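Re: [ENG-882] Designed sequences occasionally contain unexpected residues at chain ends

Forwarding the minimal case from QA. Structure tokens:
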């Protein structure tokens, strides 16, 4: 075999990672360093040169899109025999295992996967059953609480007793939610991992069989794993596995949703003999942009450490611009965009990034005034569109007539004279009798019970429709089943009358769902369910997994606007990062803890490394908040980039020195005060810092100082013994 083909065009560090012998490996892959190429070639290398059976390879990614791309690239290198490898998200891998062992895991063979909307409905039902006030216990809050505990690997029984009424109530609700899932034989996304892990714990022999099978376990974006995912991964890997993980502790920006950068930092301790390889050659950004990024991220103490470099040109230094307010900031950005567009640069290669989505409004208004097309990145994904969810709910009722969440979703969609009062009547009956919503509706709709009741007649009509649908689709193939359900439900006609302006787009989505069914290929390794609509069940399982977050590229003729979080994984020729002010970036909430501040710095680092050739960093001296302008301070992160690595965006911005970077921009609001805002000072105990603000005047005023080693502190001027440093 030609092994040179697999190693061609790899740099020395990439080649070393790809050809590592058996044993635990951690690849620290810097931004733009070719981590996907390493993962793909590692899989191909093990199959081609080490005689690793493809079916013993399990590779985990975080999005379906990334999984599809990786699979396609591996197949290009290895050929069709690599089809038997397992490659997908954490949830899809757990789903494949549970589909084989559903009953053993306490699930029904045709178990339902609850997406976020289904989960919210179930939680709302539990809140209503307890007769709680939804204003005091909003379903969204309860959903966040439950998912947070699950991501942290805690069952309800493992959650400590709360100190307050709300904590105790939410813990009780979590217990009720778990019981409801078990009674339904259903699973939400986190439950897939929990059930799989619990199954392995109960049946060690089964776990050993999977450990024996998957000798090659690879994980992408390892820095984003939450506690539950890490627990699942460690259990499957065991003590003798061959884990190969790729991640970047400098791009760990999802702590707010459970991601734990600690998993990267502790990996060499958890897996004895770990080989650590750093991919530091960047293939995206210019040298000047990388210099700024390296200088910034070096201020994070909790990192394994690496320095990005590039073989390409140094390029232009990042431009730093200070506007008088957010209006001038927006106009400056749009003016620079106009210049780029007039020079022939495609609009789709330009991105505007911000910490908070609320920052986009002023920028959007300026773009509209200048008639520049733009797109807010992160529109509603296909499987999250309401028309798709409606259709999938009808389809789930074909395979599972007792499905409460699906029944509730389409109860009056299209409208059929079934209002909230009727639904509450059905729900109350279901609660009292311990039956499903469908069974309760059937009982209430009996002609002998309430033949003259208009709602009962409408209820009978709905139940007859579902029964007729089920009979009509029995002899059809999968695409025919989807198409017939859409037709019989009369959803298309409903959308035309409900919202004529959006009807065409929604009907096109329904047609695309039929296309998805026509192109669906069952997983050959997944055991077929011995049920009437087994093909439809498998299709619905895959559709539920498709609601996981993933990105999509924008059009080439639109400027891209997005949050810094949404920008991860993307790259653009020109990037604007706006609102570089204390309270925005870093966000005010993040400055309360060291970990939060480090994550904000990583977020800024991610933004910087999205830029290929041109980077603009902007801020406003004052910004409107709650209808009033407030003065702002420059982000501390800007002070961490050496002055000689930035270019002034306007003549009035004075070049900063290494020792005094911002004090000349701030007027001294108290002429009698011996320091200015922005002045560098030294404290005998806390060391060097920067004056942020002050209250009062004279010797008894209070000074707010951010110290480099111990954070921000308020000090009394006459007792602080501060030494002012030279400008």
């Amino acid at each position: 075999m030609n092994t040179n083909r697999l190693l061609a065009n790899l740099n020395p560090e990439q080649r070393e990672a790809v050809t590592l012998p058996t044993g635990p490996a951690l690849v620290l892959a810097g931004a733009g360093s070719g981590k996907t190429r390493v993962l793909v070639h590692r899989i191909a290398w093990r199959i081609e040169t080490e005689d690793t059976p493809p079916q013993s390879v399990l590779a985990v990614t975080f999005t379906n899109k990334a999984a599809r791309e990786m699979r396609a690239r591996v197949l290009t290198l290895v050929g069709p025999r690599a089809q038997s490898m397992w490659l997908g998200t954490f949830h899809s891998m757990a789903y494949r295992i549970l589909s084989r062992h559903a009953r053993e895991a306490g699930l029904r063979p045709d178990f339902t996967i609850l997406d976020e909307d289904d989960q919210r409905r179930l939680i709302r039902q539990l809140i209503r059953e307890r007769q709680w006030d939804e204003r005091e216990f909003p379903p969204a809050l309860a959903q966040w609480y439950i998912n947070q505990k699950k991501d942290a690997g805690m069952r309800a029984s493992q959650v400590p007793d709360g100190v307050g009424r709300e904590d105790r109530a939410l813990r009780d609700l979590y217990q009720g939610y778990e019981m409801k899932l078990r009674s339904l034989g259903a699973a939400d996304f986190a439950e897939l991992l929990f059930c799989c892990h619990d199954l392995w714990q109960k049946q060690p022999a089964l776990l050993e069989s999977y450990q024996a099978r998957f000798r090659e376990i690879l994980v992408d974006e390892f820095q984003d794993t939450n506690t539950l995912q890490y627990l699942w991964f460690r259990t499957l890997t065991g003590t003798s596995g061959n884990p190969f993980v790729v991640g970047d502790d400098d791009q760990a920006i999802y702590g707010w949703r459970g991601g734990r950068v600690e998993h990267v930092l502790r990996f060499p301790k958890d897996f004895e003999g770990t080989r650590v390889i750093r991919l530091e050659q960047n293939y995206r950004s210019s040298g000047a942009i990388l210099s700024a990024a390296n200088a910034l991220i070096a201020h994070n103490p909790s990192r394994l450490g690496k320095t990005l470099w590039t073989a390409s040109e140094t390029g232009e230094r990042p431009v730093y611009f200070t506007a008088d307010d957010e209006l001038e900031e927006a106009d400056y950005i749009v003016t620079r965009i106009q210049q780029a567009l007039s020079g022939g640069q495609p609009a789709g290669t330009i991105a505007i990034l911000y910490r908070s989505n609320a920052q986009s409004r002023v920028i959007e208004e300026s773009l509209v005034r200048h008639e520049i097309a733009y797109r807010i990145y992160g529109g509603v994904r296909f499987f999250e569109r309401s028309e798709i969810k409606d259709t999938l709910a009808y389809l789930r009722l074909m395979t599972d007539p007792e499905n409460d969440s699906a029944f509730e979703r389409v109860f009056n969609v299209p409208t059929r004279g079934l209002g909230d009062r009727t639904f509450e009547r059905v729900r109350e009956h279901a609660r009292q009798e311990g039956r499903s919503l469908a069974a309760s509706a059937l009982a209430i709709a009996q002609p002998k019970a309430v033949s003259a009741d208009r709602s009962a007649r409408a209820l009978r009509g709905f139940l007859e429709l579902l029964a007729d649908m089920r009979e009509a689709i029995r002899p059809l193939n999968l695409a025919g089943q989807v198409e017939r359900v859409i037709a019989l439900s009369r959803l298309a006609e409903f959308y035309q009358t409900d919202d004529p302006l959006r009807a065409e787009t929604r009907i096109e989505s329904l047609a695309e769902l039929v296309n998805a069914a026509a192109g669906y290929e069952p997983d050959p390794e997944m055991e077929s369910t011995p049920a009437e609509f087994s093909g439809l069940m498998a299709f619905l399982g895959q559709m539920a997994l498709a609601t996981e977050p993933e990105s999509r590229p924008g059009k080439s003729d639109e400027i891209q606007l997005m949050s810094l979080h949404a920008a991860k994984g993307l790259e653009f020729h020109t990037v604007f990062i706006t609102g570089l002010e204390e309270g925005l970036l870093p966000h005010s909430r993040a400055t309360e803890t060291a970990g939060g501040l480090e994550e904000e710095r990583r977020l800024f680092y991610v933004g910087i490394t999205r830029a290929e050739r041109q980077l603009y960093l902007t801020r406003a001296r004052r910004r409107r908040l709650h209808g009033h302008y407030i003065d702002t301070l420059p982000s501390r992160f800007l002070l961490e980039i050496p002055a000689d690595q930035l270019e002034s965006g306007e003549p009035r911005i004075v070049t900063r020195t290494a020792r005094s970077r911002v004090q000349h921009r701030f007027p001294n609001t108290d002429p009698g005060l011996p320091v200015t805002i922005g002045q560098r000072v030294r404290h005998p105990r806390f060391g060097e810092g920067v004056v942020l603000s002050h209250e009062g005047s004279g010797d008894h005023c209070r000074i707010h100082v951010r110290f480099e080693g111990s954070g921000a502190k308020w000090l009394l001027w006459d007792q602080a013994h501060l030494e002012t440093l030279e400008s």
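QA comment: On inspection the terminal residues look reasonable. The chain has 29 helices and 22 strands. Proposing we downgrade this to a documentation issue.
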